[in-house]
Amino acid sequence: MRIQPLDDKSVPSGAYPKETQSVVKSEEFRVSIGLTHRRIYAIILKLLQVIPHMKTLIGIRKEDKNQWERRVPLIPSHVKELIQNNPLEVWLQPSSIRVFSDQDYLREGARIEEDLSPCSIVFAIKEIPLDFFNKEKVYIFFSHTIKGQPHNMPMIKKMMDLGCTLIDYEKIADEKGQRLLFFGKQAGQAGMIDTLWALGQRLDHETKENPFSAVNQACQYASLVEAKEEIEKVGWEIHEHGLEPSLVPVVCGFAGYGHVSLGAQEIFDLLPFEEIAPGDILSFFESKNYASNKLYKTVFKEEDMVEPIDPNVRFKLQDYYDRPQRYRSTFDSHLPYLTVLVNCIYWTPAYPRFVTKESLKRLFLGNTEPRLRVIGDISCDIEGSVEVTVRATMPDNPVFVYDLVKDEARDGVEGKGPVIMAIDNLPAEISLESSVFFSAALKSLVPSIIRGDFSGDFEDCQLPESVKKAVILYRGKLTPDFEYMKKFI
Questions:
Q1: Is the pLDDT of residue 52 over 60?
Q2: Nearest residue to 376 (alpha-carbon basis) of 224, 255, 214, 281
Q3: Among positive and negative, which fits the CA dihedral 480, 346, 407, 425?
Q4: Which of 32, 319, 458, 474 is the most exposed place for a label (fewest CB within 10 A)?
């Protein structure tokens, strides 16, 4: 930027702002560029007038991982709010599938541009293709890299080579370690809707009359409100007419009690139900004191699912988190009583598996017909806590049966084994509600992110601590908390 110096006479004598005095009084500086006090003051004054009006360009990348991914990190009304209250411009790539149209954003003051390379900070939802990255830019998205996921290591390597900064939504957390940005609740809501749909499909295949046949997949509803209304109708049908006697009692088990589980339970609780403590399931079945006009729910916590290997040691939650190798799964004892299992837990290979092939073989290849019909694996860790989740599914092919006779996965609901619902981008099925929820949390962080200094050392980047702890790469280098990832790259 070239600044036209003002005439010395336009500058009042002795009227130097405090912030310019040391510069102006520097004889070496003045002599070296051949300027008078007044002319130096004029230049600096002009700079001080211009700099506050310089705007940060932030970009929002279009999502193109698959046809179902319609979410946005910032919704149009929040973009308008940010533009009005901060020195920034918002550019978006055009998209024909985004849940909000290009015109929605244009009306709120954003620009539609295919090329986001001028933007210093780019927001997205899912992983970004290698050819999208530009040198020394900042990217904020769900990178799915912190577990060393092999398929995303080339992306990390590319960002390192280009000196990029990566901030991962998953690691943005408050001082208590609670995540600030997540889609967990929406994953639970969509996952439960799809699980009820899968139950209806399986029971139809078994030619058992059931009200769950009326439930569609989450992506087939115009809104979450419409889905809830449909499920409430199913609940009324159950309450008024009851379930087929051979199905009673229908017991739904929820593994986990966090945001995902709460979202799933919110949908389930639209049905008439009674809750049973995990420790009371056996006596509940022995008493046979159950009804056909309601369902039953049980929520499993860690102490209900594992026990110390050493019989002389008592279960302690923090010890389980710190030393999971000292514990073993006891979940086999619950499986025979469940009609549906909804898996909502956070899991890594350090923890025991809860549903194994062997436990399911004992259940499905025995002399009695198993109660278990569907596993809604919302967590969707491949061959993880549910060993028979051997692959992720998509909304257009949402379920498979793990056939325990043939030891293979087969699309659909037919086979000697449980139906597995393992869609790995469930929040995208309710894109509108997911985007509104996420954007409401993200918009409060954007001003502090654009004020960050990404030109110097990581220690001096001036990001708030909640965001700083989520910086995986800074100017192409792994930050201290993520140096362990070197072994994966």
A1: no
A2: 255
A3: negative
A4: 32
Q: Which residues neighbour 336 within 8 Å (Cβ) at sequence distance 6 or greater?
A: 363, 370, 371, 372
Equal CATH topology for 56-181+435-488 and 184-431: yes
Average pLDDT, the chain: 91
pLDDT of residue 36: 59
Output the pTM of the full model. Answer: 0.85
Segments making up each domain of the chain, as ranges: 8-53, 56-181+435-488, 184-431
**Is pLDDT of 256 > 60?**
yes
The CATH fold of domain 184-431 = Rossmann fold (3.40.50)
- pLDDT, position 367: 85
Q: Which fold has domain 56-181+435-488?
A: Rossmann fold (3.40.50)
Please check whether residue 271 is in contact with residue 214, taking contact to mean a CB–CB distance below 8 angstroms.
no
